[in-house]
Amino acid sequence: MSQDNVGTVSQIPRIHCEDNGEISKPLMQIYTIALLIIFAILGTLARLGIQLLTSYNNAPIIFSSLWFNLAGCFIMGFLVEDCVIFNYGRWTSHYHQRVVELQQIGGANRDMMLIGMETAKKSYQTRKKSSPLYVGLTTGFCGSFTSFSSFIRDSFLAIANLLPKHYNYIGDDSLDFPSASNTGNSLMAVTAVIILTMSTCVSAWLFGVHLAHILNRSKPRFSIRFNHWLMCVTTAFLALSSWLAIIFCIIFLHFWHSKGTFKLQGSLLFSLAFAPLGCLCRFYTSLFLNGKFENFPLGTFASNISGTIVLGISYDLQRIPVGGIVACQVLKGIQDGFCGCLTTSCITNKLADLDSLCDQLEKMMRRQKEGYMNKVESLSKRVVALNKRPILHCSNKVITLEAMNFDLSRARKVFK
């Protein structure tokens, strides 16, 4: 094949990302923390907004944790498999060059190009994971958008027959419980919560992965030029100012506003104030503990368990008739803000490795199948060899299993 048919780097529209300023490691850490704070607030706000939108009278699905876990899994699946949004110069160019060449060639070289494209994709994704923006979107936004503790809370309410017909998460905390049911109905309720949440989240994650694969075929056609140092300073300022603004709003509404307004907005503001703390605790816990075991995310597991315990304690304390409205709003903020961001859905955490897990299972099944086929083939050869060996001498005649029919009448004739 001629060289004219093969795509080159110069023929591919690419993203140009120029670094106009050097950035140190401490400044990069500040940049990452600032992005985690911003996206934790945005993720919590999105989660509470979905809770408010999906909590209404006679709702077909009365546990709202399904909706934000579904949306978070979709976004997480898209970000994990994306090869367009996060640009790193030659990595993006190299990957898209492989895509163009793969579309133009065929035959035996196609297999080699597939291997080359997978290598380029792995290099790009490895480089992508070190991006502060990627950490902020996945760990910050998706981790705060999804909540394992809320899923466990809804599962407990289902098995205890306490799922409300109407639950206003932001304003009134009054509950409208259904009539009591027997134990069998409660078991079916918690089973429905688990099955619906798991199946829909898996489907949403796979849909996000497929959408990313479709968009990966398109070539980037825009240019990005920025100064890393200026971007870090600006992001840190926005993160700190937004967090302080939320705290000042809480103080202002509590001391200088009416009690009705604070009752309506207090739990939301407390949730947004506690959200960055939960996100940062989960981030550093996972950073230090996830590497202890190769196939088990110990840090994420510890965050989920501790966050669920704190949510259970806060849920019980909130219903004790002691203290005023501020205490109830603080406990509600701990549940939705701190615990919601401290615990991330195990689905989004483990589905990120779903493709590699499926590949490993497929390879294992293929090896088992080949092993069984080899054993059957070896056993068949031994049986055939055994049939040709003499097993009986009678009247100077050699009788083998191949010559013998296990028909009783013929066996009698042979022995005569």
Automatic annotation (TrEMBL):
Catalytic reaction(s) noted: fluoride(in) = fluoride(out)
Chain segments annotated as transmembrane: 30-54, 66-88, 131-152, 187-208, 229-256, 268-289
GO MF annotation terms: fluoride transmembrane transporter activity
Topology term for the membrane: Multi-pass membrane protein
Keyword Transmembrane helix annotated: yes
Source superkingdom: Eukaryota
Major localisation: membrane
Official protein name in the record: Uncharacterized protein
Species annotation: Erysiphe pulchra
Lineage, uppermost ranks: Eukaryota, Fungi, Dikarya, Ascomycota, Pezizomycotina
